[in-house]
Amino acid sequence: MSVEKRVIKKYPNRRLYDTATSCYITLVDVKQLVLDNIDIQIVDAKGGEDITRSVLLQVIMEEEAGGMPMFSYDVLTQIIRFYGNAMQGVMGNYLDKNMQLFAEMQGRLQTQAKSVMTGENPMLSNANLWGDFMKFQGPGMQSMMNNYLESSTSMFVDMQQQLQDRARHLFTGMGMPGYGKEGSVLSEDELQPTDPPASKEPPEPEVAVSKPAPRRRATKG
Asked: What's this model's pTM, rounded to 2 decimal places?
């Protein structure tokens, strides 16, 4: 049974209209809906196009502009390099699965920590005190998330390089055009056919010129 999503309409004036509450909302409200685990769908009010991803990216951009960005320069540049790459689809699935695993791990850690802390200290059973405790743990969790993203992306880049190296050696052994003797990719100039060497014409044979025999001088009788 599919869960019905909460529809939000975006008008040409860039205002967001929540159809569930019949009021206009901001990107901060969109973020809160995501934090509350409410499935949303944002559509263009004029054309009906689904623009959920673009609006969520705006939310991420605002969060990244804050004091504690999640994506480092290296992670962003590596992700950009995968656009248009043959591994783009694989990279998307890789990040998706890793984010799901990290979210599940984070949920288990929070559940275990809450059960332990509330069991040993009854004062932490208060919801407000527990919320303050989790806010204090936020920077540590975000730092761990940063390291997780960087290591995951770097590991995927290394895996891609290994696959390229193996393919290069395989194509070299098969004698595929475009690869050098040691698996190096040939340049465009090297792939151009070379003109055959100009044939040298044999030298013309020398014609021997016969010299006239010298005249004998007449002797006096």
From this structure: 0.53
